[in-house]
Amino acid sequence: xxxxxxxxxxxxxxxxxxxxxxxxxxxxxxxxxxxxxxxxxxxxxxxxxxxxxxxxx
Length: 57
Description:
Structural class: alpha+beta
Number of strands: 2
Strand order of the largest sheet: 1-2
Largest sheet: 2 strands, antiparallel
């Protein structure tokens, strides 16, 4: 996603009118989505075995 305040249209040199694109020299904003992983029963069993070992340290 490109924020509108940094949106820079690119025009054809020597011609005015409609832009031909946007500049790639703009900061890109990314949304970070964190979700709980869905584990299979086997994976959940392994996590249940591993969790107590990790909590001890």
